[in-house]
Amino acid sequence: MTQTTETVRRFVGWRIVVLATITAAMTGPGQTIGVSVFVDPMIETLHLTRSQVSTAYLIGTLLGALALPSVGKWVDRIGARLAMTAVGTAFGVGLVVMSGVQGFVTLAIGFTLIRWLGQGSLSLVSTVAVTHWFERRRGSVFGVMMTAVSALMSTTPVLLNLAIEAYSWRTAWLLAAAAVCLVVIPIGWFGIVNRPADVGQRTDGDVVLAAGVEPGPDLSQSRREAIGEVRFWLLTATVATTALLITALNFHQISILGEAGLSSTEAATMFLPQVGGAIVVGLSVGALADRIPVRFLLAIAMTLMTAGLLMINIVEPGWQVVLYAISGWPTSVPSRVFPPSSEWEPRRSGR
Amino acid sequence: MTLSLIRSWVGGYAEAALLLTVIPVAIGAAALTVSEPDRKESIG
Question: Is B42 in contact with A248 (Cβ distance < 8 A)?
C-alpha cells in the first residue's frame, strides 16, 4: 500500500499535464485572439485592405489545416518530446517571419506558418503529450486542462497589444517568438516524457490493473456508419459554425469594438470576459449534458450565438460590450458537449 | 474572410452579422428535430 501510494504520488502524468497546459497556452500568438490585435496596425503599415488581410488569413488557416494530418503521423513516429521541441522552434521561426512581412504574399506565408505550427501543430502535440498518459481519467484531465489553457490564453491579446503600443507590431511578433522559444523548447526537451512505459509507469498512474473492473461495451461504429447519420453531421455543423463565426468575430474584434467607440486596448481586454464566459460554460455544460438532451444544448448554443451576432447592432461602451464579449461562450459548447455526447456519437473516430 | 467579404457587400459589420445569423438559426432548428438515442442503452 505504501509502495502504491508512493508510486501514485510520483506519477509523471500530472507533470506532463501542467507542462502541456503551458505549451498549449503558448499557441496564443497563432490563435485568432492573438492575431486579431495585429490586424489593424498591419492593414495600416502594409497598405492592404481588410479583405486582403482576411483572405491571407483564410489561405494560411486552410493550408495549415491541410498540413496537420501529416504532422499527427509524424508526432506518432518520433514521440511528443522531440516533436514539441521541433515544433516550438519552428513556431518561433514562423513568428519571426510574421515580423518581417511586406505584402499580401509574405503575409499569407506567415499566416500559414503560425496557423500550421502554432494553432495547429503545437496544440496537437500538447494534446498528444497528455493523451499517452491517461485513459480512464482522460475526459476530466482534458476538461481541467482546456479550462486552464483558455484562462492563460486570454492574456495573450492583452500582452501582445501592450507590446504593439509600446514598440511596434513587428517587435511584438519578435517578442512573441522569443517567449515561445524560451518556454516551449525547454519544456519539450527537458520536461516531456513520451509514454509512461519510458519511466516504468502505467497510464493513469495505475500500479496494477484494477480488479473487478470490466470494460464497457464497444459502442464504436465504422466511419461509413458514422457519416450516414444525421446526428454526426449536426454535431459537425455545430463545431464548424462556432469555428467559422467565432473566428470571424474574434479576428475583427478590435475593428468591431473600435467602431463601437473602444480603444484597441479596451477591445483587446474584452477577450477576458469572453474567455471567462467560455470557462464557466466549459465547467457547467458537461454537467448539463447529463441532465438535458444534447439537442437542446446545441439549440441553446446556436440561439446565443445568434444573439451575439445581433448584438453587433447595438454594442457600445458599457454593459453591452461585456455582454457581447460573453456571447462568445458558445465557442466552448461543442468541445464540452462532444465528450458527454458519447451517447450521441459513441467513439466515431479512429476506425 | 466570410465576415469581411459580406461586410464589403452589405456595408457594415452589423448588416453582415445579421445575414450570418441564418447559419446558427438553421442549425439550432435542425438540432431540435433530431431524435436522440436512449441513454440507458448507449451509456457504457
Answer: no
Looking at residue A331, its pLDDT comes to: 53
Are A311 and A337 a contacting pair, CB within 8 Å?
no
* Most B-contacting residue of A306, A310, A337, A342 (CB-CB within 10 A), to test interface: A306
Q: Is A244's CB within 8 Å of B21's CB?
A: no
Closest CA to A330 of B23, B13, B39, B37: B23
A137 DSSP 8-state letter: T
Please tell me the pTM assigned to this model: 0.74
Q: What is the pLDDT of residue B43?
A: 39
Alpha-helical regions (H) of chain A:
2-9, 12-25, 32-46, 50-78, 80-99, 104-114, 123-131, 138-153, 156-166, 169-186, 223-227, 230-251, 253-259, 264-269, 271-289, 294-311, 319-326, 332-337
Percent of chain A at pLDDT > 70 equals 80
Residue in A164, A150, A152, A174 with CA at minimum distance from that of residue A264: A164
What the block records as the C-alpha cell of A70 is 501529416
Count the helix, strand and coil residues of chain B and give each as a percent rounded to the nearest 5: 75, 0, 25
Please determine, for the modelled complex, whether the ipTM score is greater than 0.85: no
Closest to B30 (Cα-Cα) out of A243, A244, A338, A233: A233
Res. A139 pLDDT band, cuts 50 70 90 = low
A39-82 per-position pLDDT tens digit = 999 999 999 998 899 899 989 998 988 888 889 889 989 999 99
Q: Is the pLDDT of residue A223 over 90?
A: no
Task: State the CB neighbour count (10 A cutoff) for residue A292.
Answer: 10
Give how far the C-alpha of residue A177 lies from the chain's centroid of Cα atoms, to the nearest Å: 18
For residue B36, the distance in angstroms to the closest alpha carbon of chain A comes to 7
Are B32 and A294 inside 8 Å of each other by CB?
A: no
Residue A267 has pLDDT above 90, yes or no: no
